[in-house]
Amino acid sequence: MAPLILDGIMKTTRELARSMSYHEFSHPANEVLAVVLAGILGGFAFGVLHFSFENVWFRLLSLLEARGAISRLAPSIAVTRVYPSKEDFFSVAIAPMPLAAVMYASRRFYYDHAHFSFDLAGGITFTWILMLVHDAYFWFVHSCMHYFKRAYRLLHQLHHSTSGDITVFSTAHGEILDVTVSITPFYLLVLLLLYLEGNWNPFHIILATFAVNNVNMMGHSGFRLPAFVYVPASLGVLLIPLAQRPIHHYIHHLDPRFNRSLYFTWCDRLAGTYRGTHPKCTSPNEP
Ligand SMILES: [Zn+2]
Ligand SMILES: [Zn+2]
């Protein structure tokens, strides 16, 4: 029964994607309008997906905390960010709009060259490589925002405004431009590379989206998390030597001079900006 339902969903999705990809607008102005609308809709869809992830994470972590399975990294810091904000929704929805617009503008290519398969090994490899490269990109952009004081005030100060009072709802807390420069140019480059490669597997993108969002949210959870949470949620990325744990990004929020990477610690170790402990992080047993 389940394979039949799955098969039906796949066929319907394929037909829908095909009809959208092959639809052409006779007037160039209509095509431009369609691209803009697709960008806006795609961005809002990503915003809804991101906020759904945040809500699931928040409820899961609250449940684990209530059962005594996890504890706050800095128990002395009160937690007040227990709800999402609409400003953060706009930050996370607007940043991917150019990506959705580019994909729609090139819809024929992305449809014709999409080869969907449940290739788990390939998807995990793709995710790991994506995170390794994005980590270096993010470290550089993020460090610039901290180094140039004017850029910090304009773009990044808001993200740090609550110091250690963070939860998963702090993941996208920031200026629209902060979120945009941190992700959009990098993923435009990824789209370009997929275009040059000539084929892509949507399943790889689904896995990467899952892991990237989860690692970002775990980094802002404020909790010391056990391996049974962070290993599957990161698709094993956090098992790689020199990978981050939630404590590393939490320390960045307590002391922004340190830990400017996103997924790994090697950039910070090379630059001398790595720190693995903080006096306020008194919760024991860091894995
Ligand atoms: Zn942060
Ligand atoms: Zn920062």
Description of the structure:
This is Fatty acid hydroxylase domain-containing protein. The chain crosses the membrane at residues 32-53, 89-106, 118-140, 225-243. InterPro entries: Fatty_acid_hydroxylase, Sterol_Desaturase_Related. It comes from Ceratopteris richardii. It is found in: Membrane. The protein has 287 residues and is mainly α. The protein has one domain. Helices cover 63% and strands 1% of the residues. It has twelve helices and two strands. It has helices spanning 2-22, 28-66, 86-94, 97-105, 107-112, 120-147, 149-156, 176-197, 202-219, 227-233, 246-254, 266-271, and strands at 71-72, 223-224. Strands 1-2 form a two-stranded antiparallel sheet. α2 (28-66) crosses α3, α2 packs across α4 and α6 packs across α9. The chain is globular. The mean pLDDT is 91. The protein binds zinc ion (ZN) (2 copies). The site of one zinc ion (ZN) has 6 residues, from α6.
